[in-house]
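We give the chain.
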Amino acid sequence: MKTWATLPFLLAVAVPGEVSGQSLRGSTSSLDRQNRVARQHDFTYIATPEQVRRFVDAGYLVPVTATADFELHEISFPYARPEVDLFISRLASQYRRACGERLVVTSLTRPMNRQPRNASPRSVHPTGMALDLRVPGPKCRGWLERVLLQLEGSGVLEVSLERRPPHYHVALFPQQYAAYVERITRASAQQYVAGGGRYRVRAGDSLWEIARRHETTVTRLRSANNLNGSRIYPGQVLTLPD
């Protein structure tokens, strides 16, 4: 069993780019990756509710508490690995800004003797590294799926759309996620131009990602910089809308 240091206040940032070849259908290879990461992290598959409580007392799992950005729906064990708690908090904040509603978390850590009948015997929910999210309405579904698939493409999680009942199963890779978002946040902070209100474009940036980072929209970025399209280039300095 391992403990993890307290992590900095980080965003659940998705990288821009193609997500072709990915899908939400899940696969045997996806389960293989989830279980391999659990072994690499030396995570225990928690067997009973009593063991959940011992892991919470030891600090391996932390309480997940609903906020203005997300709610917990009928969750018997509202605990998760610290990085999962961080992921939910950051994703939910972005989700609420984008969609105007709260993200709904429907499952977190589940001990092995409390798994539903239709759960895979290889589920990583008993490790505390997984969560389930309710499928939102059409207004927000596209946004959520796009962000989850982009994060999957960056190698920090695996996501699938389960049918009974409908929900997104997300297996977060804690060390990979923590390192990824720390790197993204540090790189973003280094790109501010002296004088404030401006941003220097890095290789791999897109208007969509820059707008997300700075809590604005692509339309406002285009307007502030007299851009007719979405094409930008490394080294270009953009004015950030107020």
